[in-house]
UniProtKB/TrEMBL annotation:
GO terms for molecular function: isomerase activity. This is Phosphohexomutase. Keywords: Isomerase. The gene is manA. Residues 3-55 form the Mannose-6-phosphate isomerase cupin domain. It comes from the Bacteria. InterPro entries: MPI_cupin_dom, RmlC-like_jellyroll, RmlC_Cupin_sf. It comes from Limosilactobacillus reuteri.
Amino acid sequence: MTHEHGPYTLVSIINGNGILTVDDQQYSLHKGNHFIIPATIKSWTMNDEFLAIASEPTD
């Protein structure tokens, strides 16, 4: 994934579990987690079985 707009992406895991990978570092994701990915991180991956919502500011 990449940033489409704005200085960050806000992500909320709303169901399930998964793994976030940033620069070869892995982070466990679980329902109820919320986190910010700053625009300085150019790309990341998320996998496994979960449902997430993400938003970015446009101004």
